[in-house]
Structures are given as structure tokens and as C-alpha cells.
Specification:
Layout (H helix, E strand, L loop, with lengths): L1 E3 L4 E6 L4 E6 L6 E7 L9 H8 L9 E3 L5 E8 L14 H6 L9 H10 L12 E3 L22 E7 L3 E7 L17 E6 L1
Antiparallel strand pairs: 1-10, 2-9, 3-8, 3-10, 4-7, 4-9, 5-6, 6-8
Length: about 200
Amino acid sequence: METIPARRGKATYLKQGQSIRIINTHGAQVVDTWAFTAGMLTEFMSMEHTRATLTKMRPQVGDGLYTNRRRKILTMTEDSSRGDHDTLMAACDSERYILLGVTEYHDNCTDNLFAAMQALGLVPPECPSPLNLFMNIPWTPGGGLSFDPPTTKPGDFVTLRAELDCVVAMSACPQDILPINGKAGRTTEAHYQIIA
């Protein structure tokens, strides 16, 4: 079991056929998740391509997750949560926190992605929109969106199987202004494990 420290990121290699289980240890922590093809980081898991392929807003067990070259990179094989995951919101960055009224540096998932990849000696070409696991972003028939508290409980997990050799990066989201990590705004660590 590996730790994704609170407000920080981690990245790991995944071979085709291996799975990664991402665990919401304390029950209210969003985990931004990315996947890049090994050896060609310009091909990466893309939420817009995945939505177009699945013709739905959020993936469920049995669904593939697709790259910007429309290849399946991961498959969601297990989900013990209610299934509230977000594919719409970009990862937060310093500019996002400025818009939220923050005047000093704030930890953010974009920087966490780059730091996590750098720890493996890798530099992603950009910060793609992540699969925001455990993030509850309801939408209305009129097109409205809201940032709501998570519906997860401690120990909820999602398992993703690699369909290509890839690098999976995760960020224990540092968002403590909006209630997506719970109304108390307490960000915590999460965990993951590789399953052969």
C-alpha cells in the first residue's frame, strides 16, 4: 500500500494488464487522476475523448477510459463508491485560486501532477483534464453545475486496469475553499496499491 500524501501527488508505472486500486482512505478526499502512455507522454487519458466514446458524463464499472488518440488506456473494473466521479473540471492551478480570492501560493493539482511526474524523471507536455475520482459535481437539466461535498465513505475505492503500458499520476486534491473535500475543508492523504 502506497500513500498519496495530503495536498501532494504521486505517480507510478503500470504495465498492461496490471491494475491500480485508488483508495479514499478517510472518505472525503478527491483524487485527481491522469494516465500517460509509457514512452510517449503526448498521448494521455482524455476526458473529452472518453465522454465522446462512452456518450455519458461519468465512467462506470466496465467502461474504458480513452486517450487523445482514442485508444483505451484504462478500464474501470471496480468501484465501491456511489459512482460520483467528475470528468468536467480542469485541475486547479495557481490562477484558479487567484479567481477564488487567494492572494498567496496555494497547493494545487496541476503543480502536484508535474512534481509527481518529475519524481520519475518525466515531464508531461501539459496538464490534461483529470478524472476526478470521488468528486461530486452534480449537473441540472438547465446546464448548471455545482461543487458539492463527496458522497464517499472511508475505504471506498476504484480499481483501474491498464490496457496499455502507462504512467498513472494522482493528486490528493488540496482544495479547501470549495466543499468538494467535505464541508470542513480538511484535506487528507489517500492510498493506492498495484495489483498484478
